Amino acid sequence: MKAVRFAAYGGPDVLDLAEVPEPHAGPGQIRVAVRAAGVNPHDWRTREGQFQRIRPIDLPSGVGQDASGVVDEVGEGVTDIAVGDLVLGRGSNTYAEFAVLSSWARLPSGLTFAEAAGYPSVVETALRVLRLVGVQTGQTLLVSGAAGGVGSAVLQIARDRGIKVIGTASAANQDYVRSLGAIATTYGEGWVDRVRQLGQIDAALDLNGTGVIRGLLDLTGDPSRVITIADLEAPMLGIRFAGVGGNMMDALAETVDLISQGKLHIPVEKSYPLAEASAAHADSQAGHTRGRRVLLV
Questions:
Q1: Which DSSP state fits 211?
Q2: Pseudo-torsion of CA 154, 155, 157, 160, nearest 10°?
Q3: PROSITE patterns, per this entry (predicted)?
Q4: Residue 37, beta-bridge partner list
Q5: Helices marked H in 37-160 — which ranges?
Q6: How far apart are CA 266 and CA 151, in angstroms?
Q7: 223 touches 238 (CB < 8 A)
Q8: CA 194 to CA 222: how far, in whole Å?
Q9: Euclidean distance between CA atoms 160 and 268, whole angstroms
Q10: Looking at residue 21, what DSSP letter applies?
Q11: Is 94 in contact with 88 (CB distance < 8 Å)?
């Protein structure tokens, strides 16, 4: 089968489309014929080697965690899904024609494969950081990097919970952030003062790691009220890094429920063929994403 691989850490150009052996589902897993794969910052951070000290991997390695597709193999002990079912989920090496998933849910009615591939890790992360930061109904949450995938999910879930949200994003994405129910403002020079003029901040999330941690700490006054998923140096200031973790099956069930109720929609900003994974990574790293980027298989 064809799969995107990298043999050395580096920039987007280290990604290569290669012929590799097909994976197979082990106990408690399923295999899907991939139709689309989500492109996440975690993917290019892994490709750059940012996590090699804490989670070393053997090279050459595949890429990707999120996918949607058609089940074509069911592992021992799996009873809730069958060959031929349409699913979205998370696994490993999903930038490929076939991938093994360890967590999954059935595709909600009306959702395309491209749309579905953008949800798993994004919404799990959004649900987890909202829980960890402890923001409650009636309080105000500041979201730095509000227009990306996780930000799009956070804004909609927080709105549904009665939380007031202020979101920072590029000038081009101000209307998009407002459309998701948040008060929008731009980042860049003077952003802390602009946010302060909008009201008291009870909690804050850093979703893109652009050096905003000290400003978020200044606005909340308490490191326990700030969570980052992108700044690996934040723990030195007493701020929690929450890049991974959580119960994916539970998160997928809640994701499908929110989508089915019309409470959550994350647009696909751009899709790419599998052979253009390097371009997808370059665009993702450049930022200013509105919603999600996906690879079509």
A1: S
A2: 160
A3: QOR_ZETA_CRYSTAL (PS01162)
A4: 67, 295
A5: 41-48, 113-117, 120-133, 149-160
A6: 10
A7: yes
A8: 19
A9: 22
A10: P
A11: no
Q: What are phi and psi of 227, to 5 degrees?
A: -130, 140
Residue 247 phi/psi, 5-degree rounding, is -90, 105
Q: At 120, phi and psi to the nearest 5?
A: -50, -70
Cβ–Cβ < 8 Å for 201, 219: yes
Q: Which two tokens stand for residue 66?
A: 């999120």
Two tokens at 208? 């893109």
Measuring CA to CA, how many Å separate 250 from each of 7, 120, 254?
A: 34, 11, 6
Residue type, 250: D
Which amino acid would we find at residue 104?
W
Q: Each residue's pLDDT tens digit in the chain (297 positions)?
A: 999 999 999 999 999 999 999 999 999 999 999 999 999 989 999 999 988 887 889 999 999 999 999 999 999 999 999 999 999 999 999 999 999 999 999 999 999 999 999 999 999 999 999 999 999 999 999 999 999 999 999 999 999 999 999 999 999 999 999 999 999 999 888 999 999 999 999 999 999 877 899 999 999 999 999 999 988 888 989 999 987 777 899 999 999 999 999 999 999 999 999 999 999 999 998 876 788 999 999
Dihedrals φ, ψ of 63, to 5°? -140, 150
Contacts of 185 (CB under 8 A, 6+ apart): 166, 167, 168, 174, 191, 194, 195, 198
CA dihedral sign, ordered 134, 189, 214, 43: positive
